[in-house]
Design a protein that fits this description.
Length: 450
DNA sequence: TCTGGGGTCCTAGGACCC
DNA sequence: TCTGGGGTCCTAGGACCC
């Protein structure tokens, strides 16, 4: 009988690998990539991990170790990673008609096996896994890990085996379906490492003696479901080989969209914070227009650092009388919302030091589902303005035209000291940026011949 | 000095209705 | 004075993921 299987294809240290593709001299160098604002480590190669550094570590805490060990450090370059991701996913589509792009660096694909001839089939799939590795490597230069199993959760678990193979410098591809050491793997996987089980439930499960993936697989899914919730029940079943999460290949309609950033430094000046917020509104609205969506509920957030002594989190939201993706309309509303949540001083009279602003667009709908009033001429006219704005920004680069509340773009500023001082104070720190090799002409790689 | 950004799903509890 | 029971919808917040 034919059985359906799932392959998980997971790019190894994806952001680091993207940087390496265009800098072959870094082939054997340890690399790490930082989050926006050069805040935390978000991607690292195994050698960096062996220095005791893990994902999420604040950069300033490990900067010295990095320098000492000659780690190549990069600011995140999402233009490059997004484009490389698209190439990887295109390549993967050769192997199955049913592909789910799960994240920027992961995809699940559906495969089939004949369970009447298990040993031959396992060998065939093992070869296929390696073939996927080689094909993606050849087509994109990105190394992937491939794990094949009965369910997504088991494929995730099998992916730990591929990490081990990688450490041993072998091809990181494994057929976890009928894998000889499957039981051992399950017994040595801590419960907190199972996909879908985080700190919260990990601790709870351990308190009732479920310490490993194997322990949970041995449990009664119904009992788990009753004691905790349906999500854990499904995870339990998936570990037992029962499919609860099928491939979701359709492009799921986005439900919300967030645009937020930490500032390059602390701010108290409401004018500058509002400029940052307006920029997020403009970027978000542009993204909505690209995806042909409109938002029904807008909220804004401003906050001081989590670790600040004098902290505050301000948020305000509003249901729009008419869903929209018009930057001008949304900017005005955002400015009103900002007034509602901006507080300058605390009760002791000390200034709050804000470090982050953001806009959240909720209740998204396709823009053609909005019924326009017969006499809604203004609306049509506004859309033309937005179309034009998008075209100009596309042709001449982002921020060719901005809304006044975003502040004056740098290129239009004079060189006076005062102007320099104000110059996009809130823009983020990116001190280790690589070129956008694949998406911007003037940043294209130059090769000298001869 | 310095701690990311962007998502989804589920659940409990309140509001409201009959 | 007595003060039901069942249902739906919405929302905030928790938990998790990459």
């Amino acid at each position: 009988m034919k059985v359906k299987l799932f392959a998980l294809i997971d790019c190894s240290s994806f952001y680091c690998s993207c940087e390496r593709v265009f800098r072959p001299e870094l082939k054997d160098r340890s690399i790490c990539v930082l989050s926006n604002n050069d805040g935390c480590v978000i991607s690292l190669t195994p050698e960096v991990k062996s220095l005791g550094i893990s994902i999420g570590t604040p950069f300033f805490k490990v900067k010295d170790i990095m320098v000492k060990n000659k780690v190549a450090v990069f600011s995140s370059n999402y233009c490059l990673y997004g484009d490389m991701s698209r190439r990887v996913m295109q390549t993967i589509k050769k192997f199955s008609d049913n592909v789910e792009v799960y994240s920027i660096d992961e995809a699940f694909i559906e495969l089939e096996a004949d369970d009447e001839d298990i040993e031959d089939e396992r060998i065939r799939l093992q070869k296929l896994a390696k073939d996927i590795y080689h094909t993606v490597m050849k087509g994109t230069g990105i190394p992937v890990r491939v794990s094949i199993a009965e369910t997504k959760t088991l494929a995730k678990l099998g992916s730990d085996v591929t990490k081990k193979l990688l450490r041993e410098k072998k091809i990181p591809a494994v057929c976890f379906w009928n894998y000889p050491d499957k039981l051992l793997s399950m017994k040595t996987t801590p419960i907190g490492d199972v996909w879908g089980i985080g700190r919260g439930f990990g601790d709870k499960l351990q308190s009732i003696g479920i310490n490993t993936a194997h322990n949970l697989a041995e449990a009664d899914a119904k009992v788990i479901g009753k004691k905790y919730n349906i999500v854990l029940q499904k995870t339990t079943l998936e570990l037992q080989g029962v499919v609860c999460n099928p491939i979701e290949s359709g492009h799921a309609q986005r439900k919300s969209l967030v645009r937020s950033r930490s500032f390059g430094l602390k701010l108290n000046d409401s004018k500058l914070i509002l400029q940052a917020l307006s920029t997020h509104i403009a970027r978000g609205a542009e993204k909505l227009r690209q995806e042909k969506l409109v938002t029904g509920v807008l909220s804004v957030e401003i906050s001081t650092g989590r670790h600040s002594q004098n902290k505050i989190f301000g948020t305000a939201s509003i249901e729009l009388s008419k869903p929209t993706n018009d930057t001008l309309v949304l900017s005005k509303i955002a400015a009103d919302l900002f007034k509602k949540c901006y507080v300058k001083k605390n009760q002791k009279g000390e200034d709050y030091q804000y470090v982050k602003a953001g806009a959240v667009f909720h209740d998204l709908k396709k823009d053609d589902t909005i019924t326009h009033s017969f006499f809604d001429f203004i609306n049509t006219e506004k859309n033309e303005i937005m179309d034009t704005l998008d075209k100009i920004n596309k042709k001449f680069g982002n921020n060719a035209i901005v809304v006044a509340s975003q502040g004056t773009p740098d290129r239009l500023r004079g060189n006076s000291a005062a102007n320099k001082k104000e110059s996009t104070k809130w823009s983020m720190k990116r001190n280790h940026m690589s070129p956008r090799y694949t998406t911007v002409w003037k940043e294209l790689m130059k090769v000298r011949i001869g």
